[in-house]
């Protein structure tokens, strides 16, 4: 019988709580669509990162622009987060989540700074959530490589379909940062693939 600590995804619930708490802070600071308030709480502004405000790379992952933005991300985190946490454990899960979110914000800051497009404000948990999708891709790929049967092939195709669909939506909706989603996905896949290979080497 599994213990509650292994069957209840506490880390996911804590992450959701942090996002909700920061959203309350946004409202109290002037509104969740108020750029002055979002700036003060740590939204990612590339030029400010390069002046030493590195904490924005972390904080930006817990801020959201409006209720719809928050709701869609928390809905995705609720389902994907629990799945990854229960499969890989709390430590690996948090490492993937934070590495995907912070790493994506850092790469975006570099890309936008180099392109001269510094009039950008990024925020949201979506890059970290895309890292979880990258994890599901790594898991599905690993299982398929070990057991190449129709069921595992179908699961792998399903994850790939979700990624393709998300990429299409990212390009159709101008408010969404395609780059942050892409980098989050790549970082999540690479980190989780490394963790999965490391785990196999000790088994």
Automatic annotation (TrEMBL):
Residue ranges constituting the Peptidase S54 rhomboid domain according to the UniProt record: 52-196
Gene Ontology process terms (BP): proteolysis
Alphabetized GO MF terms: serine-type endopeptidase activity
Superkingdom of origin: Bacteria
Gene Ontology CC: membrane
Keywords, sorted A to Z: Hydrolase, Membrane, Protease, Serine protease, Transmembrane, Transmembrane helix
Membrane topology of this protein: Multi-pass membrane protein
Keyword Membrane attributed: yes
InterPro entries in the record: Peptidase_S54_rhomboid-like, Peptidase_S54_rhomboid_dom, Rhomboid-like_sf
Annotated localization: Membrane
Annotated TM spans: 7-25, 62-81, 93-114, 120-144, 179-197
PANTHER family: RHOMBOID-LIKE PROTEIN (PTHR22936:SF69), RHOMBOID-RELATED (PTHR22936)
The protein, known as: Rhomboid family protein
Organism: Hyella patelloides LEGE 07179
The organism's taxonomic lineage, starting at the top: Bacteria, Bacillati, Cyanobacteriota, Cyanophyceae, Pleurocapsales
